Structure formats: C-alpha cells, structure tokens
C-alpha cells in the first residue's frame, strides 16, 4: 500500500480507472465534484506457484523485468529494481487515501501540492523519505491489523503517451514471510489525463500471535509495489509499517 509519490490489498477487474477526459463508463460511485470513482479488486493469484527467483537474478535482467518475474520473489527487496527515469510515461501519483470500507473512516491521506514542496499529510502519521522519493513509512494503531476490507484511493496523472495496460503488483512481508500479494489492473489511461480509482484490499485474517509480533516489531512489516506498462517494470516503490500507534 504505497503511494508512488514516495507510495500505497479477489475477481479480476480490468475496467478503466476514472479519468477527467473522455466520457465515463461503467462507474459505480460518485466522487465529490460530480466525477465517478472506479473500484478495482485484486486478481486472484497463487505466488507460490511461480518459479522462485532472487533479487540479484532480477537485477541482472536490467529493463526486462515482467510481472511473472516479481511474483517469483520470496523476500522483500533490499533495493529498487528500476530507476526513476524508467517512468517514461510520466506517471505521477498526486493523492493517496486509505479508508476502512466497513465504517468509511479515513485512516491515512497524503497529497502532493501543486508545487514541488513537501508533501502534506493528515490523520494517522506517514513519515515520507523525501530524499528517495519512492518510499513511505506508515504508522497505524493495532486495530488496523484486524480490519478485513480497506479501500486505497489513488489519483494520478499521465504524460502525453497513451497507456494501454497499467498494472500494479504489491507484496507485503513480515520478517521475511510473505503475508499477502495484491495484483491490480488500472486498464487504459488517456494521454494527459488525471485518473482516480480505489483499490479494494481484502486482508487475510491473521492469527493473534502474529498480530502481537507485528505490533511488537515496528517497521519489520515491509512492502514492494511494482508498476508495469505492457508487462514491463517502469516504477518500483517501497514502504514499511508500524502498528503500535497510540501506545
């Protein structure tokens, strides 16, 4: 769950995200201001069925890393698998919000100002590593680990090239153990457009002993978010998480 400004878990939905150019299609929820919000669910996948691969092996591939490659990773990466300049489509995430879908409570919200100043944030804290620009640190309360369904609304702009197939794979780990793999299709994006969609994260029910360990070991829960256009890695963002807020 990683906003790509720094950045934010199943039937497949390949519908287009909401965009501010062109007519809306197949939208469900209305946004403030009259637009529509597209909700996307994760693909169902079984990452353990992909051949195992190491971070070093993927790094040797250079710019030829595909979704199937990262699905074979068995551990969180220690470094980024692509460079910022690989984002040749000029995808820029401008707003990110996390909410509990059962109550509607906003848990975290971050927005990129119109200028290149510091990022604003509110609600529960998220300390941004501005030097890296591709990392965010979250702090939630222990209650977050008992949520079942969370919505992550992302707003992003694209450059002057159309994006035919935009996909994100997000993998969450605790102390080296893969907790959950999320796999979302953004669909087609119109050139020079602003797009908004909400990813629906359906969390697994965690054992109480694992929840206690995750609370007791802040920032040992980590995630990789990989972004692909036409099955080619163009962006890689990272995050870590603490669940001891309010203690």
> What percentage of the residues does DSSP assign to strands (E)?
35-45%
| Rg computed from alpha carbons, rounded to a whole number of angstroms | 17 Å
Q: In sequence order, what are the helices and strands, one letter per element?
A: EEEHHEEEEEEEEEHEE
Largest sheet: 8 strands, mixed
The oligomerization state is single chain
Structural class comes to: mainly beta
Low-confidence stretches: 4-35, 117-123
The coarse silhouette is globular
Average residue-wise pLDDT: 81
N-C termini distance: 23 Å
The helicity comes to under 10%
Q: What's the helix count?
A: 3
Count all strands and give the number. Answer: 14
Write a brief structural summary.
This protein has 247 residues and is mainly beta.
Can you lay out the helices and strands and say which pair or pack?
Elements: E1 18-19, E2 29-30, E3 36-41, H1 55-59, H2 67-70, E4 92-100, E5 106-111, E6 120-123, E7 126-128, E8 135-139, E9 149-157, E10 163-174, E11 177-189, E12 194-202, H3 208-216, E13 221-229, E14 232-242
Parallel strand pairs: 3-12, 8-14
Antiparallel strand pairs: 1-12, 2-3, 4-5, 4-9, 5-6, 7-8, 9-12, 10-11, 10-13, 13-14
């Amino acid at each position: 769950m990683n906003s790509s400004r720094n950045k934010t878990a199943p039937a497949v939905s390949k519908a287009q995200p909401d965009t501010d150019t062109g007519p809306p299609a197949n939208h469900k929820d209305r946004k403030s201001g009259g637009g529509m919000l597209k909700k996307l669910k994760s693909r169902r996948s079984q990452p353990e069925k992909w051949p195992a691969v190491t971070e070093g092996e993927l790094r040797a591939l250079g710019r030829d890393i595909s979704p199937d490659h990262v699905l074979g990773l068995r551990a969180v990466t220690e470094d980024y698998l692509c460079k910022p300049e690989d984002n040749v489509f000029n995808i820029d995430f401008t707003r990110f919000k996390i909410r509990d879908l059962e109550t509607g409570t906003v848990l975290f919200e971050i927005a990129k100002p119109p200028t290149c100043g510091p990022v604003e944030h509110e609600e529960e804290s998220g300390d941004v590593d501005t030097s890296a620009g591709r990392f965010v640190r979250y702090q939630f309360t222990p209650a977050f680990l008992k949520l079942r369904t969370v919505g992550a609304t992302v707003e992003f702009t694209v450059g002057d090239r159309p994006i035919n197939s935009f996909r994100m794979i997000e993998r969450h780990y605790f102390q080296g153990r893969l907790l959950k793999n999320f796999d979302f299709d953004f669909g087609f994006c119109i050139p020079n457009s602003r797009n908004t969609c909400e990813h629906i994260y359906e969390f697994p029910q965690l054992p109480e002993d694992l929840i206690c360990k995750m609370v007791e070991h802040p920032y040992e829960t980590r995630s990789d978010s990989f972004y692909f256009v036409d099955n080619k890695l163009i962006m890689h963002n990272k995050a870590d998480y603490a669940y001891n807020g309010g203690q």
